[in-house]
Amino acid sequence: MTKNISPMTVLISIVSLGMAAYHFYVVLVGAPTIFFFRGSHLLFALVLAFLYYQTVRVQRDGAPPSIADRLLTLAFIGLSIGSIGYLFVEHDYVLDRYAYVDDLRTIDVFFGVALIVLVLESTRRVIGLALPITALVFLTYGIFVANLRTGELIDQMYLTPEGIFGIPINVSATYMVLFILFGSFVERSGTGILFKDFALALAGSSAGGPAKVACMTSAMFGTISGSSTANVLTTGSFTIPMMKQIGYRPAFAGAVEAVASTGGQIMPPIMGAAAFVMAEFMAVSYLTVVSIAILPACLYFIAVFFAVHFEAKRTGLKGLPKPDLPRIGEVLRERGHQFLPLIIIVGVLMSGFSAPYAAFWGLLSVPATMLLKANTRRDLTLRMFHDAIINGIKNSLPVAAACACAGIVIGVIQQTGLGVEFTEVVITLSQDTKILALILTAIAGIILGMGLPTTPAYIVQVALLVPALTKLGIQLEAAHMFAFYFAILSVITPPVAISLYAANGLSGAGLWESGIAAVKLAATGYIIPFMFVYGPSLLLIGTPVEIVTTSITAIIGVICLAGSLHSYLLRHALIYERLLLFAASMALIVPGIYTDLAGLGLLAAVIASQRALKRDVAARGAD
Predict the structure, then answer these.
(1) How far apart are CA 242 and CA 253, in angstroms?
(2) Which residues pair with 568 in a beta bridge?
(3) Can you tell me whether residue 326 is helix, strand or coil?
(4) C-alpha to C-alpha distance for 382 and 13, rounded to whole angstroms
(5) pLDDT by residue (tens digit) across 67-97?
(6) 310, 566 Cβ separation under 8 angstroms
(7) Burial class (CB in 10 A: 0-12, 13-18, 19+), 233
(8) What is the predicted pLDDT for the residue at 156?
(9) 259 half-sphere exposure, CB direction, 13 A CA radius
């Protein structure tokens, strides 16, 4: 019996397929002018946002819309088409007029106000209240504190590429749709099975194996998703039960998954959406962002991996039975070909092509690689293509909404000069001291990230805080990465820790217990940004010798920190040994020959102490 398909489902499918086809066309033929390109992307996103979320109450998309909701949805869609279509029809007028000089026409004001309201309302429906409220606060500041004329504000937001149609929405249109579609295709192709079995084969039988599997699968899944919450819900569905099965506390199991999944946003080749925004703000290629991110990302996952290892050894937790685990050879023979799309993306990027072009060819390679083996070939159907595109386009809506709304914030900051004022405030408060400015920026980043998604939290920091860091002599790359890291870490920092909420839903743990565990596990993540500010060789800036020596000492340092926080190195660590390990980690993390030698000396003292006590215990046992 054929299942009835509603007209709304058909309409959503048509618009979603149209949006995907438009972005495929652009990457092959080239982008049209700014307003046509960014406007078309935003128009697709607004229409789909109102089609998917028809009820006025946020997060009630499962409830049937009332007649009033349906009428309001039609009105919003009509206004979306009208306000952006007007820019297409009057394109020459928009380009030829002098912004802030020529008076606005009545229709300009009407459609300008309408688009601002539409962006705020669609963002509220798709993401929640925090970002629209933030945008309203900035608009209020612009009008009532900075005394901007309403016409000037509408001009900036609607008729220039410095507001809603600014850099953030350009990043969403240029990069994010294609990469999110790629992630959706990879997920539908069954690559998650490869990631899970590959990690189980490598680490499943070792001490605390399921927790290590969570680290590895989250790192691998992060290379295709770039979303910490998506990572938690995807990999956590099997890693958290496995961790609880071998004896990990629910709070620790959830924390491991949340912390590892958060690292997915910093793990190349496909990082979180903010990384693409970073490339635009720094005016560099996405490959440059990937290259400066690789060593810090590795440090992050090494620290988490050793933290779960030390916790397992300290509590006596074993791994999974080896006979129950897949063999690495069989995994690679059966599904190893599904690594090819990631390899192709990296190869295309390294060949000098653009990131959207790399995403396009990576996306095309997914069905091609599925044809190589019978076990993946059977999943290659028209339904798989359809579902992958619909799911990918739906997943791109939060990014598009966040970027459009962040454009309002950026527009006000630029127009009022608030960024310059904020820079002066930070410099004054820090008294020209780099470390104080960094701490203020870190606190601001975490607070902003508690209410905002990573991308707008990073964008606001770039406008308000990064100029202050660069003015204090911090390298541009390090300043941007610093803001990027703390915007990301907010999702695992209590009290508002979105990724932890998702993990706790799977583990059944409470927020504060899992929050404390997450902060301990991710402690290195809070320190790494300070490391690459003071040692930019971690961002591959410097001589090869500097990069290698800094990387080695940093790796030893983060292992020492994990040992100190989890009371284990070669055996259970005594109080004084934990203190020495902590001191060693701090010394090794700070770049410099003398601090490195001091750190290595402290580590050697701990190792000697642990070995001596181990021999004493063994001797007493022999007696």
Answers:
(1) 9
(2) 572
(3) coil
(4) 14
(5) 888 899 999 999 999 999 999 999 999 988 8
(6) yes
(7) middle
(8) 92
(9) 32
> Would you state the structure tokens that stand for residue 132, as one six-digit string?
């629209």
- Amino acid 160: pLDDT: 92
Q: Sign of the C-alpha dihedral, residues 304, 523, 455, 434?
A: negative
Residue with tokens 């971690």: 538
- Specify the DSSP class assigned to residue 338: G
Report pLDDT for 3.
58
pLDDT for residue 64: 75
Helix (H) or strand (E) holding 211, with range, is: helix 209-225
pLDDT at 195: 80
SS3 at position 302: helix
**Residue 402, both tokens:** 């966040």
String of b and e for 285-312 (b: at least 16 CB within 10 Å)? Answer: ebbebbbbbbbbbbbbbbbbbbbbbbbb
At 568 the three-state DSSP class reads strand
Q: Residue 28 and residue 18: Cα distance in Å, rounded?
A: 15
- Gap between the Cα atoms of 474 and 467, Å rounded: 10
Tell me if residue 157 falls in helix, strand or coil.
Answer: helix
CB 198 within 8 A of CB 331: yes
Helix (H, G, I), strand (E, B) or coil at 475: coil
Structure tokens at 600: 């290595």
How far apart, in whole angstroms, are the C-alpha atoms of residue 75 and residue 58?
18
- Report helix, strand and coil shares of the chain as percent, to nearest 5: 80, 0, 20
CA-nearest of 493, 424, 414, 494 to 460 is 414
pLDDT of residue 616: 65
pTM check: above 0.85: no
Start-to-end Cα distance in the chain: 78
Cα distances (Å, whole numbers) of residue 26 to 160, 173, 309, 356:
22, 10, 47, 10
Question: What distance in Å separates the CA atoms of residue 156 and residue 125, rounded to the nearest whole number?
Answer: 24
Cα 129 from Cα 575, distance rounded (Å) = 46
**Which parts of the chain register pLDDT below 50?**
1-2, 59-61
Question: Each residue of 554-596: pLDDT tens digit?
Answer: 999 999 998 998 888 888 888 999 999 999 998 987 778 889 8
Residue 421 · residue 139 · CB < 8 Å: no
Query: In 466-534, which residue ranges form alpha helices assigned H by DSSP?
Result: 466-471, 476-489, 498-507, 511-521, 523-534
Distance, in Å, from the CA atom of 545 to the CA atom of 512, rounded to the nearest integer, reads 43
Helix (H) or strand (E) holding 492: none
CA–CA gap between residue 499 and residue 110 (Å, rounded): 40
